[in-house]
Amino acid sequence: MGSADDVYLTFRAIAEDQPGPKLRAQFERCWPSYREWFLREGEAVRPSYAVCLRMLRTHMPELVPVYERLIGAVDGDDQMARFLSLYSPTPFLAACSQAMWTRGARPALLRNYDYRSHLLDGVILKTRYTGTRVIAMADCSWGALDGINEHGLAVSLAFGGRRPVGPGFGIALIVRYLLETCTTTREAAAVLRRVPVQMAYNVAVLDREARHLTAFIAPDREPVVTAAQVSTNRQGAIDWPEHARIWATVEREQALVHCVADGQGSLDQLTRAFLMPPVYRATHAGGWGTLYTSRYLPREGAMECLWPDRSWRLGFDDFVEGEQHVRYVVRAAAHPAGPA
């Protein structure tokens, strides 16, 4: 029996090639929370529909037909259409850790998503929006927190640990765009250098040939594309000491660097590190903590969603719709409340 304070989440796997009734049902469940977030700073602060559409046409033209089908699928009004563009949305902060394994026959991208539980969509979508099959952990309906496409390109994100905010797209739509339009790490790097982003993020990319990159992107300076295999929540020097201390940015990074650099290490050992402290963050009051671990296997065309007590494999050739009900044991100490 769990404690009354414990947190419970349901993760759903949904297959729908184009925005349709399944996505609409999920959107209707989440729209009250989406709307509250969208209006948090006042509706006038959010860009107009005309601006949102123009920015999509300018920077991500391949997504415009999908965007229009999505609005139709949810019978979207002006607010919904502006929200779904994910252009200059309400800022939010997370934590997250990510690492890439490039040795041996099973290259892999792993990530922990550290966030507030009640703000997670909890939906793994298998789609073919632009003709490319994609499996991704959804955010804001059609955005992606992490994912893989049928070409073997895997992508994930982590907050960059810096506070500047500027005009640009929410990172979840940029991740979606990478998965829809890129086949290699090199192509992804070109996109990350040109698409404007709203906040600072670290984006990890791995392709089928084990070519990898970590891009440090932000609204106030030029992107930096590196060969780093590990990233948490900083872009070089610590820019926000309080956030780094609370979320153990350096400690998580050092633990993962040790695993990746260990000549005697293995992919399984790296995976275990993601499910243990300091990388794994226990859930605290308010629902903050590690909500899931993803492991992407480009050569197998599959993702594995992991928790300390179970795993869930979903591949392009064996994607079975279903649910996972996950309980998080809440610890006594609480993270300070933060923007979300």
Q: What order do the SSEs take from the amino end to the carboxyl end, as H and E?
A: EHHHHEEEEEEHHEEEEHHHEEEE
Structural class: alpha+beta
State the helicity in percent bands. Answer: 25-40%
Distance, first to last CA: 30 Å
Mean pLDDT: 95
- What is the radius of gyration computed over CA atoms, rounded to a whole number of angstroms? 18 Å
Please state the overall shape, judged from the principal axes of the Cα atoms: globular
Number of helices: 9
Q: How much strand?
A: 25-35%
Main beta-sheet strand count, sense and barrel state:
9 strands, mixed
- Per DSSP E runs of 2 or more residues, the count of β-strands stands at 15
Summarize the SSE layout with pairings:
Blueprint lengths: L6 E9 L5 H18 L10 H11 L4 H10 L4 H8 L11 E5 L6 E9 L6 E5 L6 E6 L3 E7 L4 E6 L11 H11 L3 H10 L6 E6 L5 E7 L2 E6 L3 E2 L9 H6 L2 H13 L5 H8 L13 E10 L4 E6 L2 E6 L6 E7 L12
Parallel strand pairs: 1-4
Antiparallel strand pairs: 1-15, 2-3, 2-11, 3-12, 4-5, 5-6, 6-7, 7-8, 8-9, 9-10, 12-13, 13-14
Helix pairs in contact: 2-4, 8-9
Describe this protein with a few key phrases.
340 residues; alpha+beta; nine-stranded mixed beta sheet; six-stranded antiparallel beta sheet; disordered C terminus
Please tell me about this protein's structure.
Mean pLDDT is 95; it is low at 334-340. It is globular, with a radius of gyration of 18 Å. It has 9 helices and 15 strands. It is 28% helix and 29% strand. With 340 residues, the chain is α+β, with helices and mostly antiparallel strands. Strands 10-9-8-7-6-5-4-1-15 form a 9-stranded mixed β-sheet, covered by helices on one side. It has a 6-stranded antiparallel β-sheet with strand order 11-2-3-12-13-14, with helices on one face.
